[in-house]
Amino acid sequence: IRYLTAGESHGPGLTVIVEGFPSNLPVSREQIDEQLRRRQQGYGRGRRQQIESDRVEVTSGIRFGKTLGTPITMHITNRDFTHWTEKMAVWDAPPENLKQVTRPRPGHADLAGAIKYDHEDIRDVLERASARNTATVVAAGALARQLLARFGIELTAHVVEIGGVRATCIPSEWDALIQAADASPVRCADAEASDRMVARIDEAKAKGDTVGGVFEIVVRGCPVGLGSYAHPDRRLDGRLAGALMSIQAIKGVEIGLGFEAARRFGSQVHDAIAHDGSRYLRPTNGAGGLEGGVTNGEPIVVRVAMKPISTLYTPLMSVDMKTKQPEPAAVERSDYCAVPAASVVGENVAAWVVAEAFVEKFGGDSVEQMEDHVRAYQARVARR
Length: 384
Ligand code: EPS
Prior knowledge:
InterPro entries: Chorismate_synth, Chorismate_synth_AroC_sf, Chorismate_synthase_CS. The protein has ten helices and 17 strands.
């Protein structure tokens, strides 16, 4: 399965075309819109989220609520475009009073993008580089998670750190974890840490500054054997890391114990193997569900680090690209902290990557054919 996205943050809208999904999968529009809604939440976001109310318009690939096995086109309208019709006109000449963005923001794609694509107005860079575009990735992931749900695979994500404030008391039980994260304005399952994270965001906001953080994604219900050790580009750990690192502002990805594994003896890192008479068990999950780039049947656990948003209301110094004179960086309306939203993006990106590996292993043109393949494989696994 594959997808292609398009769209500018303040243009008419965003589009994603998903290809390779099996036919006959019942799809819920509400569940796609629910992921889009979750992505728009989170304490620390700017005023833009009061304008948008993201929903998908599906224009191909689904009939009577089921996939056809043909490309699925999903479109999300940018409500804010009504305020940008002249500044983001597709065909008309630029308005006479157009103010170009010429002072690149440190940390953003602005400077390198303007040089690379020969743009004079940095808006031509930032419109596509914007994390607004994660809405399309979430829509694709929201479809993928509906396919995974059919096979008993579920995902969640929760925030474990914002601006140096760490969660310490995290429920280990699945439903409790989801409930606690949903109840927190920053999607942190530790209520006490959640309050301190909110205070940290307020502190950043008061200073015209921003904060980043870390979130954790958990995928449960994966069969043994997704991904492969046979070739580097088939390793599921590498594919997850690459996809998650490709989300705007993401600077680090670790699987299972991650960097902590590098500090311990091997005996304190690896998970002993046991058998309960019907299946293999692991008393610990330091590997985060992946050994040799292959799922081992334990939950996949991935932690992802996001840098602080690079648009600062109290800007760092920059250079005006027209005059080459020192000037404070441009200030665009922005968020103070988008870690809670990024956790939802990460969750749906992970859903996409796992679904891709799942379709590779159990591929079939219809969901019924996939079910046959899964059943046959499960019967074999039970004999091992
Ligand atoms: C973003 C800047 C802000 C964010 C935006 C990402 O947008 P605006 O400049 O319109 O206020 O709100 O994120 C979204 C619009 C979104 O839906 O996630 C940026 O520069 O990356």
